């Protein structure tokens, strides 16, 4: 019962804080005496802190507000993508304390070497966390492919050439580590660090070398029966189109992925510069990619009927040029059946959406079950 009550109070502070003890009692239905004891435990554990006197409505004397503390517990979000590694350190208040991104062509490396590079990056961030006085509750690794929820292995990441790779076993960090799909975590990053609940039910599209999507319904991630939902990049746009790394043909990735948009030797920044100069070839490439994206999104909308579609990853800097053809295609294909075609918006979580969602997942776990961090205070792992 104590564990449940601690989670109840911490969750109330997370959703509505800062709050006085009296307001916490009203919000949780617990007695003021119980709340005071629980708040004391949370403060002693470094999960909450008093933040000054406030007037609790119009009644009585001012009370002392309590809020989440960002000074002790943090979470580590990690990402292995096709052409980069990323790490993000987030404290309990969801303040971003450290971000690191390293460009690297992981397609040219065996899984063990790519994971070793991620371990090195994670170790650097753990050292930085120690200098900030933060202790790490856990880490989640974002991967560009379906993850087997039973084993924690990436089932298949075609753009990396990985199959059934046990990432956590190889990574071997001195803290709890789990893995999840990059697109799923990017959607959660948008929910917790981006536009949030104002999006309603939304589809977050992660445009990278691969293209993934995460669907958030009523504030929760929809994973599908086997955890493999969201492979938008392998929706067929043209049945007789070019072969895809997934084994199919004519997949969206072949028309709207990063490799399709960038010519040899060109960077994303180069493409944006050309688009800003109205270079005809660059504009045509984005128009074609946006049209293909709109075709794939039409299928997603017919299946899931989201309120909003969020474009992230490389689609964020390309949004002014890729969203117009995508929105036009959606409207042309949906307006007869759908009274309201979903709005296309650019991601507010940006390119760090996946590692932010990864770190945020750990923070959610701490808030849902703070008891381990009260009974056995965390210590900063030695990198």
TrEMBL record:
Family designation: Belongs to the ROK (NagC/XylR) family.
Entry annotated with the keyword Transferase: yes
Official protein name in the record: Putative NBD/HSP70 family sugar kinase
Domain of life, source organism: Bacteria
Native species: Sphaerisporangium rubeum
Record's keyword annotation contains Signal: no
Listed Gene3D superfamilies: 3.30.420.40, Winged helix-like DNA-binding domain superfamily/Winged helix DNA-binding domain (1.10.10.10)
Assigned keywords, A-Z: Kinase, Transferase
Taxonomic lineage from the root: Bacteria, Bacillati, Actinomycetota, Actinomycetes, Streptosporangiales
């Amino acid at each position: 019962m104590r564990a449940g009550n601690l989670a109840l109070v911490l969750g109330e502070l997370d959703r509505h804080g800062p709050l006085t003890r009296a307001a916490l009692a009203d919000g949780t239905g617990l007695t003021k005496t119980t709340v005071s004891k629980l708040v004391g435990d949370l403060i002693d554990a470094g999960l909450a802190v008093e933040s000054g006197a406030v007037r609790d409505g119009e009644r009585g004397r001012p009370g002392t507000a309590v809020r989440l503390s960002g000074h002790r517990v943090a979470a580590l979000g990690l990402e292995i993508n096709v052409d980069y590694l990323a790490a993000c350190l987030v404290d309990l208040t969801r303040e971003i304390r450290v971000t690191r991104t390293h460009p690297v062509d992981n397609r040219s490396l065996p899984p063990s070497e790519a994971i070793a590079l991620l371990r090195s990056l994670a170790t650097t961030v753990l050292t930085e966390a120690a200098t900030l006085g933060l202790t790490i509750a856990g880490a989640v690794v974002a991967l560009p492919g379906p993850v087997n929820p039973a084993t924690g292995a990436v089932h298949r990441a075609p753009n990396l050439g990985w199959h059934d790779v046990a990432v956590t076993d190889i990574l071997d960090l001195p803290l709890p580590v789990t893995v999840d799909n990059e697109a799923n975590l990017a959607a959660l990053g948008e929910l917790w660090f981006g536009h949030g609940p104002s999006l309603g039910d939304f589809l977050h599209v992660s445009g990278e070398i691969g293209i993934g999507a995460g669907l958030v319904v009523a504030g929760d991630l929809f994973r599908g029966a086997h955890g493999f939902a969201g492979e938008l990049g392998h929706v067929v746009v043209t049945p007789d189109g070019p072969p895809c790394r997934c084994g199919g043909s004519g997949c969206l990735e072949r028309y709207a992925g990063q490799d399709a948009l960038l010519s040899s030797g060109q960077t994303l920044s180069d493409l944006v510069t050309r688009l800003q100069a109205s270079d005809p070839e660059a504009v045509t490439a984005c128009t074609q990619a946006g049209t293909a994206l709109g075709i794939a999104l039409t299928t997603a909308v017919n299946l899931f009927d989201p309120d909003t579609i969020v474009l992230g990853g490389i689609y964020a800097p390309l949004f002014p040029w890729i969203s117009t053809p995508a929105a036009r295609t959606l409207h042309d294909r949906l307006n007869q059946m759908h009274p309201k075609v979903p709005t296309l918006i650019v991601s507010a979580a940006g390119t760090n959406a996946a590692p932010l969602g990864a770190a945020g997942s750990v923070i959610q776990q701490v808030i849902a079950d703070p008891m381990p961090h009260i009974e056995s205070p965390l210590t900063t792992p030695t990198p």
